[in-house]
Model the fold of this input.
Amino acid sequence: MVEAKTVVDATCGNGYDLLYLAERAQPDCHLYGIDIQEQAIESSRALLETHDMTNRIMITFLHSSHDVAFKKDIKEASIDLIVFNLGYLPGGDHRIMTKSHHTIAAIEQALPKLAKDGIITIAVYPGTDEGLQEKEDLESYLCELNQKEYNNCHWKPINQINNPPELYMVQKR
Ligand SMILES: C[S@@+](CC[C@H](N)C(=O)[O-])C[C@H]1O[C@@H](n2cnc3c(N)ncnc32)[C@H](O)[C@@H]1O
Done:
């Protein structure tokens, strides 16, 4: 993060993850915030403006599905960090959730643009049927990525009830 030049929050939601990233970004970093919901983009923009981040670094908001955004809008060929926080918008319409076919398509589009040693983090929420399905689809996809090209790993709490969130990480070698 210290030297990252291009960072993408692929599900910016209410902007909390984006703010965390912005606060740690260097002044020459280009930060993207993507969300499929206009409401989320506006919440994120307002949060970042309130914390004076939009004057400090370059932030591009993309109201789009992340698979489309990676294919068409993000031109940088060397992305250092991509963050996915899956599921639905807290305080929003819970029927609008990330879907594994979009998530996997977005990762497929993003991988060629990931820098060497660049990282993708994906937080999943297996506590709902939809979230569990998304996690399983994602894990199947990530398990098949070539080990000579990517280091993939999985963080999973093992002593907590109610299927807590888990994290996947992809690092380009
Ligand atoms: C758990 S929330 C993200 C939380 C956010 N990072 C924050 O700090 O507040 C998941 C977000 O994914 C968004 N989303 C769902 N499907 C999407 C898609 N295909 N492309 C981009 N965003 C999507 C939802 O609108 C929702 O805002």
In short: The radius of gyration is 15 Å. The mean pLDDT is 97. The first strand starts at residue 6 and ends at 9.
